[in-house]
Amino acid sequence: MYVLYRALSAVHLENMLEVTRMGAVVMPPVPAFYNEPSTLADVVEHIVARVLDQFGLDLPTARRWQGMRASARPAGVASRPTPPGKALS
């Protein structure tokens, strides 16, 4: 379920809680700035990449967050989000 970013009432929140209890993923389209987007298209691409990640699909042109220092990442920590139901490799 992809929800628009706006003020949410108690009814909205209860409905989102109910669908998550049924197994859905509620994912608001929140722009990220840690990847330093330079255009609106970069912001949109990042949000699209996050949605596709939920389905285990890759957007090859998406810039992935590598952390403050990619070499400092502990062993076994994925460099990108792991879609639900997929094991870390």
Task: Kindly describe this structure.
The protein is mainly α. The chain has 2 helices and no strands. It has helices at residues 10-21, 40-54. The relative contact order is 0.13. The mean pLDDT is 78.
Write the layout of secondary structure elements.
Blueprint: H1 10-21, H2 40-54
Residue stretches low in confidence (pLDDT < 50, at least 5 long) are none
First-to-last CA distance: 27 Å
Percent of sequence in beta strands = under 5%
Number of helices: 2
Q: Tell how many strands the DSSP assignment holds.
A: 0
**Estimated radius of gyration:** 15 Å
Task: Please tell me what the overall shape is.
Answer: globular
Main structural class = mainly alpha
Determine the fraction of residues in helical runs and give it as a percent range: 25-40%
SSE ordering: HH
Major β-sheet profile:
none
- The overall pLDDT, averaged over residues, is 78
List keywords for this structure.
single chain; 89 residues; mainly alpha; 2 helices; globular
